[in-house]
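Why show two proteins at once? Because comparison is the fastest way to build intuition. When a single record is shown, students tend to memorize it. When two are placed side by side, the eye starts asking what differs. So, the first record is below.
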Amino acid sequence: MEKTPAYLKLLNDKLEEITFVKEPKELYEPMAYALTMGGKRLRPVMTLMACEMFRGDVSAALPAALALEVFHNFTLVHDDIMDVAPLRRGKETVYKKWNTNIGILSGDAMFAKAFEIIAGSGEKTLKPLVQLLSKVAIEVCEGQQYDMNFEQSPDVSIADYLEMIRLKTAVLIASSLKAGAIVAGASEQDTNEIYLFGENLGMAFQLKDDILDIFSDEKVFGKKKGGDIVAGKKTFMFLKAIEMAGEDTRATLVNYFTDTTIEPDTKVKAVTVIYEKLCVKKCAEDMMDAYSSKALSHLKNIRVPSADKKNLEQLSKELLLRNF
């Protein structure tokens, strides 16, 4: 993992070089703000790591890496509006700092900027990279729509939820890795394997995020604790609790998720108590571990020396042990 800090510095330096027109400032200042709020830069780092693993030219993968990071931050700007989330990475979200209309428009401009950046890719890889970004953009929107649908639907299954997070979260991580493989000229088989590695890692990553939303230190996590509960999101833990709870507890839990008159802190504390009694955190951790194991099995199938896989192996472990 010794190259990760170098990758991060390279990516942050390049992100700072992205030119934003100064006027109208209400459009461009929020875009720059969104990109400088911090974050792990997980997706572009994975693009560069994948490219290097296949012995490709890392500098040639920079347009794809940067485009995917700008696209990812666009999704966060819009997600925060839809989730009415006041904090992101410990800072005010874009719509909260400015307003909803500015958040929408600045996010739209970031979406366009992502395609402008990826257009700087090499001639041989430009078409598959643009196709990849277009595909993942549509899939992420599908996942977000399912997420919103589930807030109102009384009949959401665990399988429904897992498909939603595959689209909303996992495919972007998978595509970030695939982009690096494409730039490096990896075989179709290896490109598919690294995509599946990323997809399963993305599932584990989101399950970890769901756990941290409730069972974490708010100051470390950088978001308001229990945001999924307040927003009425039917996460894996909620659905597992509904499956395991008795009739009375199930009714109580549903009431906490649907009654908008209950004070948010009261709601979060009460639901957390129910989750703890039903041990749904352990269920989520077991599911996370299962996806992690499946991810590593796909990484094992990639036909490069084992030593070249160490960076991705270590990164995947760190992501699932994180507390933020």
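Second record. Ask yourself what differs from the first in the token line.
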Amino acid sequence: MVAQPDLAVIKEGQQAAWAAGDFSMFATTITIVSETLCETVDVRAGQRVLDVATGSGNTAIAAARRGCEVTGVDYVPAVLERGRMRAAVERLDVTFVEGDAEDLPFPDESFDVVLSTFGVMFAPHQERAAAELLRVCRPGGKIGLANFPPESLAGGFFRTAARYKLPPRGVRAPVLWGTEDRLVELFGDEVSSITLTPRAVHLRYRSAAHWFEFFRQHFGPIGLVHEGLEPGKRERFANDLMELVSDANRSGDDTIKAPVGYVDVVITKRESAASR
């Protein structure tokens, strides 16, 4: 019998990884993703919006800019505090709540729109996370996701990291959330439509070395893998990642402009769907 993964231990490791460095520094470089997702979903002023795995609040803040009644939820207190600071600076009313994407602390059918940007896709129990998104979304409401597909540059980063630190056994790859087949499996008959729109956001840095140093310092999952390696492997890990970015570079000069592909996903919950 294959041993089942210890999800509690996996989540503890994830929380430590996302709390390491300063995730908000990375998040500010991809705010365009959240703005685009809100436009793709067509969020409307006055709607009740939940941003799941909000991090430092990119998507929650984007929805609040559009006059929505917004809540952001995440299981890393440090990044939530950054979100509160950012919302306060813009004088936006966003409620930030500590909570788990697999056990959302909200009643059934609480929200008109449920969003997540490169967030819920990392939940180790994918079926449970998808069920929670559906549960808190009202019938006829929308679920909007920005997810990395397997073939993206981000997928390459994850595969490279896995060569140096094996991912937990028994947990399906997060990038499957970027494929239509897996989304149909996860959301099934409770939705009336699932649409995927290919997008790209660009990494823009002075050089591949500048990109890696920035990510090592601020993007916790990369930084922790790097720190956990012996010196020789650290250098190889860094070089492998920088090679990926250099190969993807489209700047035409010495700077980096590397497109990271992702998909905007819009899921409409059936009007007659019963809450799970």
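One difference worth noting in the second protein: The longest helix spans residues 231-248.
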